[in-house]
Design a protein that fits this description.
- The protein has 164 residues and is mainly α.
- α3 runs antiparallel to α4, α4 packs antiparallel against α9 and α7 runs parallel beside α8.
- The radius of gyration is 16 Å and the shape is elongated.
- It holds the Pfam family OHCU_decarbox.
- One of its GO terms (molecular function) is 2-oxo-4-hydroxy-4-carboxy-5-ureidoimidazoline decarboxylase activity.
- Its EC number is 4.1.1.97.
Amino acid sequence: MHLNVFNEVSESEAAEVLRPCIDIERWINDLVSARPFSTLEELNESAARSAQPFNQEEIAAALAHHPRIGERASGDSQEANLSRGEQSTLDLNADVSARLAVANREYEERFDRVFLIRAAGRSSEEILAECQRRLGNTDEAELAEVADQLRQIALLRLQDAVKN
C-alpha cells in the first residue's frame, strides 16, 4: 500500500495492513494513531520506537503466530504467506531439517517457547548456529533477543506493506 493511501484509510483498514507485520495491539494502535506520516522514514522510526520495548505478554502473543523455524507456516493468512516467503531461501535438505528439528526441540525445552529468528537474509547454518548460541542465554537475555528478532521482523514486513 502506498504511504498516502495508508495515511488516509480508516483506522481499521490501517490496522489490517499492520497486523501481519506483528500482531501486537499496542504497536498497531500506536502507528495508526500517529498517522499521517510525511515519509516512510518517519513511519519506520515511529514503528521502531513503538517496538521499544515489547513486554513479555506482547512477545508471547506475537510468538503464537510464528511457526517453528524450518516448518512451513499453515493457512492462507497474510502472516503465514510472509513467513513462508521469509523461510523460502533456507536450504531444508533432510540433514538440515533434522538438525533444525533437534534445535527447535532443545530450545523449546529450555525456554518453553518457539525459537524465533529473523530468517530473511540468513542461511540455515547461520540459524542453527544462532540457536545453539542462544541456548546458553539466561532467560532474561533470551527474552531480550526474542524481542529484538520480533522488532526486526516487524520492521522488515512494514517496509513491504507500506511503500512510496
